[in-house]
Amino acid sequence: IGVGKTTLAQLVYNDNSIRDYFDLKAWVCVSNEFDVIKTTKTILESVTSQSCNKNDLNSLQVELKENLSGKKFLLVLDDVWNENYDDWTKLRSPFDAGITGSKIIVTTRNSNVSSIMRTVADHSLQILSDNDSLCMLAHHALERGDFTGHLDLKEIGMEIVKKCGGLPMALST
């Protein structure tokens, strides 16, 4: 919790070079209640920027496949918890329509999810070292981004770093 999975995915998703590389981008927050129909519908709406009244999985997937066909897309599935292999097999069916270079980024706290969905190695984010944490705290709290000229605050900064336990989210807050 709080190591920056979503934040890192947002940085990638919003990067200028990414915008030029992909024909389509979509971001879907999945969370605990995974439903193939609802998730497919949300992805379709994100891809088309239009609401959809369909509730049939087949027609949703046909339309999604049509919208992805021949395009290079980036899809972020944020905060995924579902470990059901069959659900993921159903969900990913339309993505085969995208061209080479299409990517799906999944953020999850659950290693079982990443092993079910994985086609490439997953990247586990780790907590920050005390030194990196102190640098991040200085970046967020001080104008210069370091403790130069604020050596009296460095000791207080180290106390904050210890309380945050290397979690970037806690440090930035």
From TrEMBL:
Metal-binding among keywords:
no
The protein's name: NBS/LRR resistance protein-like protein
The record, for PANTHER family, names: DISEASE RESISTANCE RPP13-LIKE PROTEIN 1, PLANT BROAD-SPECTRUM MILDEW RESISTANCE PROTEIN RPW8
Which BP terms does GO give this entry?
defense response
> What highest taxon heads this organism's lineage?
Eukaryota
InterPro entries to which the protein is assigned, alphabetical: Apaf_helical, NB-ARC, P-loop_NTPase
Molecular function (GO) terms for this protein are:
ADP binding
Under SUPFAM superfamilies, the record lists:
P-loop containing nucleoside triphosphate hydrolases
Looking at the record, the residues that make up the NB-ARC domain are 2-143
* The keyword Transport is annotated on this UniProt entry: no
Which key words tag this protein in UniProt?
Plant defense
